[in-house]
Hints:
Blueprint: E1 3-6, E2 14-16, H1 40-47, H2 51-58, H3 66-79, H4 85-92, E3 97-102, H5 108-123, E4 127-132, H6 137-149, E5 154-157, H7 169-172, E6 177-180, E7 192-196, H8 198-211, E8 217-221, H9 227-242, E9 252-254, H10 259-270, E10 278-281, H11 284-296, E11 306-310, E12 324-327, H12 330-345, E13 355-357, E14 360-362, H13 371-374
Parallel strand pairs: 1-4, 3-4, 3-5, 5-6, 6-7, 7-13, 8-9, 8-10, 10-11, 11-12
Antiparallel strand pairs: 1-2, 12-14
Helix pairs in contact: 1-2, 1-3, 5-12, 8-9, 10-11
Amino acid sequence: MAQTVLNSRAPSILVAMATSGGKHPRSDSKTKNSGQHITIREVAKAAGASVSTISAALNNSDYVSAEMRSRIQGAIKQLKYRPNDLARGLRLQKTHTIAVIVPDLSNNFYVDVVRGAKDYSTSANYTVLVGDSREKWDEERDYLDSFHRRRVDGVVRVPAMDALTKKMKPILGNIPWIYADRYPASGDSSVGRVGIDNVVAADNATRYLLSLGHRSIGIISGDISSGTSADRLEGFLQALRAANIRPDRSMILAGHNDIESGHKHAMQLLQRAQRPTAIFCTNNMMALGAFAAIQELGMRCPEEISLLGFDDFYWSTLLRPTLTVVRQPAREVGMIAARMLIDHVEGRSPIETPVLLATQLIVRDSCSPPRQMNA
């Protein structure tokens, strides 16, 4: 099925993604009925069947015989008939379309979430609409309103940071939605949630730094109004408590999951009189900003400062040193979210929620024992 992207500046406009390698479809003036819209009645006449039988065949009904189905397929092929999905959706009250809204398509994590949702949806014969809120509630709300007007069957939602406390019911009405990755700290009427156990993932990452001998660890987390960010911070604090280390609240900084805030807060941590020996960033973009700050200050990583990030992408191995990260299965998050949503739409038994997937700590070169231990 086709994937479609909604223009974030004008959510009412649909831009179809090209599937022909940039080439325009060939126009064939000799094709019979070129430029004409073939109706189901014409297919019925050509196949020698009633309109209701054609409709039943298109809906894969069991009562249409194999012989009749073959005749109908022949007529469809001859006439180049294409069903009107919009009209069919209005009639059946189902459009076989879901929407995916993410906060930042410049972040590869969300690109992979979208790809996963699209891959599963395609296998289930659903079309996918995609929106990028750019971490702004106003843009997300416009997308959600546009999705509602287009009668999508459901929404996979990764909310913008300033949208976590907003109510969806007044906007989406009876359209179901499911959270992927991020979710509000307080519950709502969503179908469910797919992500990782963020407490365990952050706890394991922090324990790794502790195992290297770090006792002064700074953290740049996301906004704690996000359950995801709050859980990662809790995992960090949990590991420190287990090691009988009192957290230094002045080294716990909340960013906005972007390069700029990662850079800003890393500069704050690195220019302290008593700076940390390691920094843990709970988002990949903030880790990239922190890496830039380390380079800007001319510090050696990991000899003078260790850096550990969250999410693993191609640039993690292009940096020098290569970046140690928590890897989470972004594509699987998208696939399972789409599956749960489509199962709900089609009335199948639901998967128990929340679905929490396993993460991996990928150890590379950006972390080492603190300098005094290396001396």
